[in-house]
Design brief:
alpha/beta, Rossmann fold, eight-stranded mixed beta sheet, 12 helices, AB_hydrolase_1, transmembrane, monoacylglycerol lipase activity, Alpha/beta hydrolase
Amino acid sequence: MKLFLRVLRWALIVIIVVFAGLLTAAHWVESRDSDEEIAESFRNERVKAVVHRYKVADRTIRYIETDEPGQDSLPVVLFVHGAPSSSSFFMKFFKDTTLVNHAHLVAVDRPGYGYSDFGRVETSIVKQAQLLQPLMDHYRKASYFMLVGSSYGGSVAARLAMNNPNLVDQVVFVSSALGPGLERTYPISYFIDKPPLRWLIPRLLLLANDEKLAHRQALTEILPDWNKIKAGVTFLHGQRDDLVFPTNVAFGRSHLINAQSREYLLPENRHDIVFNKREYMTQIIVNILNAYADSVKPENPPKILMTANH
C-alpha cells in the first residue's frame, strides 16, 4: 500500500510539472510573425510580402500583401483567418507561384490577433467588419474581389460581403462557422472564462475562448442580412469536422437568397483543410479566377482585313 501511494504521489508530481511546463510554454506561443520575420521569410521569394498598418477609431489593424509590378491589374484575394490564428496562417499561399501569378494576395490580422492590437479581442462580427472596412475600401477599384474566410474568419467574411455587395465578387468559405450554434463548445470553455483558470490560460487561447462564447450571439446579430450577399459563394468543408459542423454549409446555402453557390464536401477531412488540403484549396481559388478571366475575354477578337494594293 505504501509503495502504491508513493508511486501515485510521484505520478501526480510528474503530471503537475508537465502541465505547468506546457502551460508556461503556451504563454510564449502567440501564433503570429513579426514584420521582420515575414521579411526574412520572403527574402528569397520572387514575390515579396509587404506589411502595412492603418488606424481606425482607436484601433490599429495590420495587413500583409504581395508586392510585384503590375499587381494593380490583378484580381484581389483577401484572406481572413480564424481563431486562434493570424495572417501568418496564410503565408504558404503567398509563396505559391500558381496563386501569386493569378491574383494580388492580401491577408489581415483580425482585431485582437496577430499585430492588430494583440490581446484586445473584438467578439462582435459587426464591429470586426467595421474595423476592416478601410481595407475593403482600399481595394475598391479592383477588377475582381474575392474573400477567403477560414473558420471564424468565414463569419467575418460573410459580414464583409453583406456590407459590400457591389465590391465583393466571390466568397470562399473554408470550414466556416456561419450558423448560430452550429459548432462545438467544450464544457472547459465556460470554466476558462472564470478565475482562477482564466488567470492561468495564455492570452491567445483566451482570445479564441472569448470569441467562441460570444459567437452564437454574434452570428445571430448578422442573421437578417444574409440576403445582402450577392457574390458567388463557394463552400469547402470537411464532412468529419466535429469542431465547426458540416451543417454550416446547408445553413449558408439556405440563407443565400440573392447568390449562387457551389460546395465541396471532403469526406475524410476534419477542421484541417487549410493545413492538409492547401493545394486543393488553392486549385479551387485558381479555377474561380480562371473562370473570371475567361468571362472578360472578348468572344470574337477583331478581324484584321488585308487589302491588296493595285
